[in-house]
Design a protein that fits this description.
With about 170 residues, the protein is mainly beta. It has one domain: Lipopolysaccharide (LPS) transport protein A like domain (lipopolysaccharide transport protein A fold, Sandwich), CATH 2.60.450.10. The chain contains one helix and twelve strands. Strands 1, 2, 3, 4, 5, 6, 7, 8, 9, 10, 11 and 12 form a twelve-stranded antiparallel β-sheet that branches. Strand 2 and strand 3 form a beta hairpin. The longest helix has 18 residues. The protein is elongated.
Length: about 170
């Protein structure tokens, strides 16, 4: 690898990691308490960065962490603009997003930065405590803190505790 290619590789990697820290936003805490300016750590078996296509592809046991948020996948592709800002992040293969006891699993997920939303497809399942939500497609609007689930099925298991007065 030439000196210029190595420099370009490091530049892309640092930009990807810097902008990934902004994925949840800038200089404020999101609804779950993860700061947008907290560092992002991404580990994978392999990273391939390409200046020409504006992409960075992480392959094999990909784990991305920022604060209390963790994303696991077999494969992750970061697409960035000419200004080196993240436009989109695609995750495929055993996708699992966890935070504060909540978990969403799916075959694929796509984060759209401009729209501040994540779309889960391929058998998405969301779990929190004793509740499970499934559907054909789950869309989470980050800034609004709301979700839309298509073709949904909700399962709420009985919570044990003292009876409530009616």
């Amino acid at each position: 690898m030439s000196g210029r290619s190595f420099f370009n590789f490091l530049l892309i990697l640092s930009l990807v990691l810097f902008h990934a820290a902004l994925v949840s936003g800038a200089e404020k805490r999101d609804r779950e308490g993860t700061s947008r300016d907290e560092p992002v750590e991404i580990t994978a078996d392999r990273l391939t960065a390409d200046n020409n296509t504006g992409t960075a592809v992480f392959e094999g046991s990909v784990v991305a962490r920022q604060g209390g948020l963790t994303l696991h996948a077999d494969w992750m592709k970061v697409i960035y603009s000419d200004q080196r800002e993240i436009k989109e992040i695609q995750a495929r293969g055993r996708v699992r997003l966890t935070q504060d006891g909540r978990e969403i699993t799916s075959d694929e997920a796509v984060y759209y930065r401009n729209e501040q939303m994540v779309v889960f497809t391929g058998n998405p399942v969301a779990r929190e405590e004793k509740s499970t939500v499934t559907g054909s497609r789950m869309t989470y609007y980050i800034e609004e803190g709301r979700s839309v689930v298509e073709n949904t099925r909700v399962i709420i298991k009985e919570l044990k505790g003292p009876p409530h007065d009616s």
